[in-house]
Amino acid sequence: MSLATSSLGAASRNSLRALSPATVDTLVIAAFAAVVSLLRTGFVFGVWNNLFHLPIVAGLGNEPQFHDDAFIQSLRYFASGVWILLNDTQRDVGQTEVLFFVLNYLSRLLSFVGFLCCASLLGVVTRRDKIVFSLILCAIAFLDGYARAGMGGLFVNYFTHSEIANGTVLLAIYFAARRWFMSAAVACGVTFFVNAFVAVWLAPLLVIVAVTSMLRGETTLRTVCWRTLAGLVISLPMAYPVLHAVLGNPEFGKPPGFDYPAYLREYYAGHSLITAVDLDSILAMVAVIAAGAAAFAWFGARARALQAVYLGAILVYAVGIVIPFVSGANLVLNLQLLRSGTQIYLLAGLAVAALATNWLSRGRAIAFLPGCLMVLCLGINGIAIALVVPLVVGVVVATGVTDDAPASHRRFGYAALALAGLVLWPFAAWQNLAAGRIFNDAVGEWQDVGNWARGATRTDAIFLPLPHRAETATVQPGDLALARVTIFEFVAHRRIWVDYKRGAAAMWTPSYYWIWHERMTETEALESHAARLAYAAGHGIDYVVDRCETLSSQRDVVFRTRRLCVSAAERAPAG
Question: Which residue in 128, 241, 326, 569 has the most C-beta neighbors within 10 A?
Fold first, then answer.
């Protein structure tokens, strides 16, 4: 026993010694930065897209009461390797909320590792620079939440598989830029395992890097092809379960049988149709693109590979803008190319953070104040990021005249950094914390309803949940959170009649569209609790969930929380 322990300890020490100090620095700093980033965004469980994830983790599709539930059964073809691995693990793992939190942290950690690797291509190589760079990333407002004009996830406050791909994308780009094409192909394969769509967006960027390297005489076509092929062969075992889930779907490749662009507009078109994106979001995207372009331009020749990648990301996004005007095919629109804007945001964040680090840490007197002002701009939401462009131009012009700056510049610069670090960052964290508390309160109430339902109702009971609430200025955040919580089925193991968010299942199982469309049309037309009860009675629905404040009487309420009331519906007699 002691010999085995000693051998394991020696192996661990040898493995650590095999890592270079720079690699250890990167891993440690990334681990710390991921904690800081999570402190800013917070974490919630059981909301938004967890609607698709939690039933898989709970294995609901294997339970008898869900055998004829078209939505739950469609999740068998929800083709992400992450959920294939986690399928039906709730009974073994138990603490799914803890698991999701850990996975969310690891996902964020992977993103920071990817950022730091790519930043090394821009001169961020010392320990001090890596720390400064990582802290700036943690303070960039446009990396919080979702990319505008496409709504791809960046640093979001709950665990989903797609955000894991942010880190693998950055690593693939880094490997390709270093001309490690086998490693780049493997990273693309891992990305395919996580989210096949993201791998499709990534592949053209890697091709552009390879072509750029060949044109510059840094590699040959033969080398690129053989190393890429080797990486793809290594990736085949990872790709297989995803391909099996996709190709095993009996509806894959078949015409949907309805107007697909119209369906997207009915459900959510923001991932695919630029006509569904508001002007403010488009302007924000333009501002981010401009800031990233200016930052990459500053680095000149040493950033050629990343400049080519950035241009490629913009071109992929541009194709996503044009495609819906050319084709309405579901296989094409399901690529959700507008979501590829996440790659633009990630690369722009990389560029501006590296540029700010450069200006702050190289003793460039004339650039120090602009660097501080850039950090300040990065902490402000909206098109303030576009101010990076005149800052870059100003530094270029100023350094052409002199590199000296008045001593007051340092004082103003430190004041700007203090404002960013002591005001903007805490304010953003407080806002996210407040939003998270609202969602956690809503999750708690739905968990109470779910626990009651699991213990007090028949296993085949069906529930009609809250009506869909659109995000408008008149909707209270608490009401919106109640309507966005998706944990009920996971806790209760009871069926839901319909939910707005479930409409996404029509993307991979088009036959579900008609069920969803009919039920949503019918339920959204119900204007009162009495009407919802009558509808439930006529459709074999056992219970109706409403906000208690909307009920004129609680005579039929069988369970309630602070805001949610569950009413029993009297089923209409058969025949």
Answer: 569
